[in-house]
Amino acid sequence: MGSGRKAFYAFDFVVSLWVLFRRLFTANHLKRSSRRTFGRMPGWFPKRYKIKVLAREYLEFVTWGMTVHSHKDRALAIAHEQGVVRAREFDAEDVPRVTLRRLVNEGILTQPSRGLYQLADADLSEAHSLAEAAKAAPSGVIALLSALQFHELTTQTPHAVWMLMPSKAWAPTRPPVRLRIIRASGQALTGGIKHHRIDGVSVPITTPAKTVADCFKHRSKIGLDVALEALRDALRRKRATTDEIWRFAVANRVGSVMRPYLENIP
């Protein structure tokens, strides 16, 4: 624990104690408590009653402190396990939003975008942008240039994360990374998907064979030369077989386009 966090917790504890004892030993509070219990009596009250009040107030204070720290511990455990966490996922674990704000103010959590949280000192991989995109757009699938780069089948460096999404699915307006969204449906969207664990996040990515077929389907957007490079690399490096690529080419309705290239590549 850093010195900054220790100082914050110490200050928070001292302020809470001050509020508690001020409430306990304020004359008006004691006078109201004695009148409520003993009727119209002077400002004094029995020592036994004072002990009961102190015990009850102290128990409430300790319970409150334990609840706050349990919320923090639960939030940190979720962030450690999942890497990038959506706010609604914290809600499902009964972690209040105020706890998330405190952790962000303390510098323990960061917000890459609205509604997303991750640990500030997390050890991030090179493919972390794919994890952020998967959390920002849960209905999307990493595909095309981003999938090619993940499978090491291209020399291109995309400036955005390419994703396939259903035709009417919601797309984030302020994602943590730039997104290039391609709308799809049916087998063109759901076929050939494999989940990979990236920084604690389960990221759906198209397989090499499906990615190559998608590149030919969307060759007008990424370029035919990129699709041909991906096809040659996938076969040469044995990331996919001709039969696998042909199956997805038929599903994407680009069989007639890909047939001459598949027949001529040794």
Question: Would you kindly provide a written description of the structure presented here, covering whatever features stand out?
Answer:
- This protein is of the alpha+beta class.
- The protein folds into 2 domains: 3-119, no CATH class; 128-264, no CATH class.
- Helices cover 58% and strands 13% of the residues.
- The chain contains 13 helices and 8 strands.
- The strands form 3 sheets. A 3-stranded antiparallel β-sheet has the order 1-3-2, sandwiched between helices.
- Helix 7 (144-150) runs antiparallel to helix 9.
Average pLDDT score:
80
Proportion of residues in helical segments: 55-70%
Q: Strands of the largest sheet, in order across it?
A: 1-3-2
Radius of gyration in whole Å, from Cα?
Answer: 29 Å
Identify the overall geometry.
Answer: elongated
Structural class: alpha+beta
Amount of beta strand: 5-15%
The figure for the number of domains is 2
Q: What is the H/E string? A: HHHEHHEEHEHEEHEEHHHHH
Q: Helical segment tally?
A: 13
Low-confidence region ranges: 34-45
Q: Would you report the number of β strands?
A: 8
Q: Mind describing the biggest β-sheet?
A: 3 strands, antiparallel
Tell me the span between the first and last alpha carbons.
59 Å
Short description:
The protein has 266 residues and is of the alpha+beta class. It contains 13 helices and eight strands. Strand 7 and strand 8 (201-206) form a beta hairpin.
Describe the secondary-structure layout.
Elements: H1 3-25, H2 27-38, H3 47-82, E1 84-86, H4 87-92, H5 97-105, E2 109-110, E3 116-119, H6 128-136, E4 141-142, H7 144-150, E5 161-166, E6 179-184, H8 187-190, E7 193-198, E8 201-206, H9 208-217, H10 219-222, H11 224-236, H12 242-251, H13 255-264
Parallel strand pairs: 5-6
Antiparallel strand pairs: 1-3, 2-3, 4-5, 7-8
Helix pairs in contact: 7-9, 9-11, 9-12, 12-13
